[in-house]
């Protein structure tokens, strides 16, 4: 750290922290903007910041913690499965370069973070992803270093309990995901189904706005029917499917014939099978991607 850092150059780092904390591109951008406003207000009052990085990280993290606390009720009443807003890392190299690993951006990882309290999440991310030392973390979250170690150990247990099944070689994961997406593009349901694990899960995030599912679907037979319906719908409207890196992992974007975005698909791999399929079709979670949004994605209303 240096006291000569240009505060404006810290924006990618602050966004990386805020996005992992909140799982929302829109909320992360708002949080970073609010952090800068507070930072410059602090300077305008005649105070000095020994380290812009330290102060801005502290403000951003505390704002994210406050946001998570206030959003808890909203998350609990969310219609259907909650998924993070997808981030197209291939289109945002600054964020991708700041990621300690692509796994720390993955949908699977961000969903696991939902099992942690806001402060546990901050401590875990600052230590495990951004490599802050315990004294710095303690100052950021307002705890003693010993307490931060305890919070980290607790968070690690929660994360590792769900993370081990996704510990797959990146090249193998990409190859299997490519086979899955190729089968979807070709409408090859037979090969699509052969790639599914017996206990595969499907999460369709509509949030009451898009054509999602009210609850997750589990098991190869039931997920097969869901995927068959999606593939038939794609082919029926003449959808164009585009490969993209989504949250640092192989993903698929579906566009209608007018070039408007329908939904974003990602998969998790375990062994030689697809163990999780996630579809974000809630227009509110896709608007930040900058594409026009397809009316085909919207839930039918009377």
Automatic annotation (TrEMBL):
Family: Belongs to the sigma-70 factor family. ECF subfamily.
GO molecular function terms noted in the UniProt entry: DNA binding; sigma factor activity
Residue intervals of the RNA polymerase sigma factor 70 region 4 type domain: 107-159
The RNA polymerase sigma-70 region domain, residue ranges: 9-72
Protein's name in the database: RNA polymerase subunit sigma-24
Name of one Pfam family that matches: Sigma70_r4_2
GO annotation, biological process: DNA-templated transcription initiation
InterPro entries in the cross-refs: ECF_Sigma-70_Domain, NTF2-like_dom_sf, RNA_pol_sigma-70_dom, RNA_pol_sigma-70_ECF, RNA_pol_sigma70_r2, RNA_pol_sigma70_r4_t2, RNA_pol_sigma_r2, RNA_pol_sigma_r3/r4-like
Keyword list, A-Z: DNA-binding, Sigma factor, Transcription, Transcription regulation
Residues passing through the membrane, by range: none
Entry keyword annotation includes Cell membrane: no
UniProt KW Disulfide bond keyword: no
Summary of subunit composition and partner proteins: Interacts transiently with the RNA polymerase catalytic core formed by RpoA, RpoB, RpoC and RpoZ (2 alpha, 1 beta, 1 beta' and 1 omega subunit) to form the RNA polymerase holoenzyme that can initiate transcription.
């Amino acid at each position: 750290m240096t006291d000569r850092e240009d505060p404006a150059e810290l924006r990618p780092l602050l966004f990386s922290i805020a996005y992992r904390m909140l799982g929302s591109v829109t909320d992360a951008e708002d949080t970073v903007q609010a952090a800068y406003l507070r930072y410059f207000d602090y300077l305008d009052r005649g105070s000095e910041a020994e380290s812009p990085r330290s102060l801005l990280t502290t403000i951003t993290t505390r704002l994210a913690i406050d946001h998570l606390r206030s959003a808890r009720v909203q998350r609990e009443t969310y219609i259907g499965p909650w998924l993070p807003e997808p981030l197209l890392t291939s289109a945002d190299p600054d964020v991708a370069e700041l990621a300690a690993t692509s796994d720390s951006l993955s949908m699977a990882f961000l969903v696991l973070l939902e099992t942690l309290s806001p402060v546990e999440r901050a401590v875990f991310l600052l230590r495990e992803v951004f490599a802050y030392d315990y004294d710095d973390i303690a100052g950021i979250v307002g705890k003693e270093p010993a307490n931060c170690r305890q919070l980290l150990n607790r968070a690690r247990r929660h994360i590792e309990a769900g993370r081990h099944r996704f510990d797959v070689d990146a090249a193998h994961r990409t190859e299997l995901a490519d086979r899955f997406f190729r089968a979807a593009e070709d409408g090859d349901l037979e090969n699509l189904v052969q790639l599914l694990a017996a206990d595969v899960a499907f999460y369709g995030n509509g949030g009451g706005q898009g054509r999602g599912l009210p609850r997750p679907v589990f098991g190869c037979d039931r997920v097969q029917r869901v995927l068959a319906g999606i593939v038939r719908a794609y082919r029926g409207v003449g959808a164009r499917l585009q490969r993209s890196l989504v949250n640092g992992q192989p993903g698929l974007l579906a566009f209608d014939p007018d070039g408007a975005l329908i939904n974003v698909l990602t998969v998790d791999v375990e062994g030689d099978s697809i163990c999780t399929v996630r579809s974000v079709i809630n227009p509110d979670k896709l608007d930040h991607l900058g594409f026009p949004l397809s009316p085909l994605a919207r839930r039918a209303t009377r």
